[in-house]
Design brief:
This protein is mainly β and 127 residues long. It has 1 helix and 5 strands.
């Protein structure tokens, strides 16, 4: 038993890949509010509130470097980008889900986690 645990702790984690590769992530979706324009510092001081959905992962991941994006390790939160509308998934807020899509690295002030996921589907999981 101790040997198995030691092997699990010392086995290198296989990193996921950025777009165009598809990935499947597990976690809980929560809505967060971040400061937006003009200064991206404080909603209380007048910055626009940006409400985004963040997938809090069941276990941290790493993402391999690509020709466009840097490697990221210890990623535990991923901002979700849902092109076809959030309303169809609203009932899944606060629930454990399985999310499929492609990842990219933050590159604008509107990106509030280091890694983001362009969603192709979200499905609820049983507790």
């Amino acid at each position: 038993m101790t040997l198995i645990l030691l092997l699990l702790l010392t086995t290198p984690q296989k990193c996921l890949s950025y777009e165009p590769d598809a990935v499947t992530l597990n976690g809980t979706i929560r809505q967060h509010t971040f400061p937006g324009p003009p200064n991206y510092e404080s909603v209380a001081k007048g910055d626009q509130a940006e409400r985004v959905w963040v997938l809090h992962l069941a276990a941290p991941i790493c993402v391999s470097a690509s020709s466009d994006w840097e490697e990221e390790t210890g990623v535990s939160d991923v901002q979700l980008v849902i092109a076809n509308g959030y309303s169809q998934y609203r009932k899944l807020l606060g629930r454990r889900v399985v999310v499929n899509g492609t990842m990219f690295r933050a590159h604008t002030g509107h990106h509030h986690t280091k890694v983001l996921l362009t969603v192709s589907s979200i499905k609820g999981r049983l507790p």
